[in-house]
């Protein structure tokens, strides 16, 4: 009877860790997207300094979670989002509104893909 308890508890622990990881990733991405929307609003208002500050704060927040993301998420997705952050910063520095807005939209989508990849669903399990 005891022979099946260890695998069941181990499976339950893995399931719980997966659910917690999904929740943490969603919270982080929601926060980052809010910060990016602030940067977008600042740029739309013509306040490029404010947009750069908001983008920089978001990137610093993002950077603080890099170790966790590289452990739990696909490296290519994380690296793509990091490169998009850098391109957004370059467009903000050059005050290119259309390029900045387009890259920011792509970045927000890329961040949401992190949530999709970590979501506990049959699609991700299979």
What structural class do you assign from the helix and strand content?
mainly alpha
Q: N-to-C SSE series?
A: HHHHHH
The number of distinct β-strands equals 0
Average residue pLDDT: 91
Instruction: Figure out the total of helices.
Output: 6
Radius of gyration from the alpha-carbon trace, in angstroms? 18 Å
* End-to-end C-alpha gap: 30 Å
Low-pLDDT stretches: none
* Main sheet specs: none
Backbone shape = elongated
Strand % is: under 5%
How much helix, percentage-wise, in residues? Answer: over 70%
Structure description:
Helices cover 87% and strands 0% of the residues. The chain is mainly α. Helix 1 (5-44) packs antiparallel against helix 2, helix 1 (5-44) packs antiparallel against helix 5 and helix 2 (48-64) packs antiparallel against helix 4 (75-94). The model has no long low-confidence stretch (mean pLDDT 91).
């Amino acid at each position: 009877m005891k022979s099946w308890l260890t695998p069941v508890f181990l499976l339950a622990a893995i399931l719980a860790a997966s659910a917690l990881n999904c929740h943490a990733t969603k919270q982080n991405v929601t926060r980052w997207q809010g910060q990016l929307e602030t940067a977008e609003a600042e740029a739309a208002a013509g306040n490029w300094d404010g947009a750069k500050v908001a983008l920089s704060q978001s990137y610093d927040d993002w950077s603080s979670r890099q170790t966790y993301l590289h452990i739990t998420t696909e490296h290519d997705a994380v690296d793509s989002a990091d490169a998009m952050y850098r391109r957004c910063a370059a467009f903000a520095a050059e005050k290119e509104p259309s390029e900045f807005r387009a890259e920011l939209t792509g970045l927000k989508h890329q961040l949401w893909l992190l949530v999709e990849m970590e979501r506990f669903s049959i699609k991700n399990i299979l």
